[in-house]
């Protein structure tokens, strides 16, 4: 008997791994059966899902490489038959003056065909996680992006909150703005504004959003846009379009994972404000924690072995934390000695080897903090796909993976974006799996 597969409707390209699970989480919660792949699959086997998220690690690599990988993902998704492409970046618009958000957006726009190909939006808003956009300015909680902890990010310091200006500095296309007063007026007003902007020669519109209601309005106005570029928030407004057309069944959130087994560990390479608070909370509770010193690694000490030998005898007693997380001044001092990219890579390499060793030692519930760190860890675990499970905090679900480093066993993994999660996130994650 021929098996009937549903053709995927939405194809997503995420520029980091935590961002990919964040997006997949929002799609699953909005009723789309979602599959997340690690990198671009090497075969063209049809995937039975409503949405596919291809997770790349392209946020901070050279722009030309990010473009090449994103175009490859785009071609693969198109071959799967998706109707709409979604380029997912960070809710804090993490990028450098060289990109990669602008260059990748332009390359994807060039690759589009059909009506609407010359126009797209930019919208990192995610109100549930306190990322809002007003008059083109991105707020993190109560402060402008440029006054938030993001100004000290180790790889992508964000020092300008004006998204029109930031995006314009990364793209040849003219950037315009759809203000919140228009967004709150509803989908017709937004569509009219899109047309007016296009008539003025605008190719990319930053769209304000301060609430989920704004995102739902925007979602309707995006129904026919072939390429959407956004954080994960905009995704909550898209499924309604397919539901209205009767091509998306009402799925109860498909977030059931197999039962969790094995030891528990946290590996943290994020230096964001929220992660620093989470590490502090863990340490202040007297729970086992091992600090990775990047300078020791650089001087040739086998820190991976040290960390694994430290962890081995205590894994049976409960979760352990291994972290390189540090406050901005300490990170700066390390970067001054090692170089920014070199320090980042060194720490990612160390933490991913530690994560691999922990899984080989029997860890089957693993919390990873930090987008770049998560990318390195998931690659080290040799994983092809992630199944999305229940949400721990907005933007962060548990997932389950099949890892080749433990002979195909199931490992429960959560990839926590740097600035997501409450201060007790690590403890809460494990209690949720029980
Ligand atoms: N002590 C340290 N000194 C220098 N660099 C560090 C240190 N600890 C971590 N790093 C590097 O800082 C970078 C942190 O980026 P990562 O994406 O993992 O976290 P994040 O930016 O907080 O998360 P997200 O991208 O999800 O917001 C990584 O490249 C990591 O290797
Ligand atoms: O959008 C966010 O903030 C996250 O999904 C992310 O991309 C962090 O790396």
Automatic annotation (TrEMBL):
Class of the enzyme per the UniProt entry, highest EC level: transferase
SUPFAM superfamilies, alphabetized: YgbK-like
Domain Four-carbon acid sugar kinase N-terminal residues, every copy: 10-237
InterPro entries attached to this UniProt entry: 4-carb_acid_sugar_kinase_N, 4-carb_acid_sugar_kinase_N_sf, NBD_C, NBD_C_sf, OtnK
Taxonomy, superkingdom: Bacteria
Stored Pfam families: NBD_C (PF17042), SBD_N (PF07005)
A molecular-function term among this protein's GO annotations: kinase activity
Four-carbon acid sugar kinase nucleotide binding domain boundaries: 265-426
Entry similarity comment: Belongs to the four-carbon acid sugar kinase family.
Function of the molecule: Catalyzes the ATP-dependent phosphorylation of 3-oxo-tetronate to 3-oxo-tetronate 4-phosphate.
Protein name stated in the entry: 3-oxo-tetronate kinase
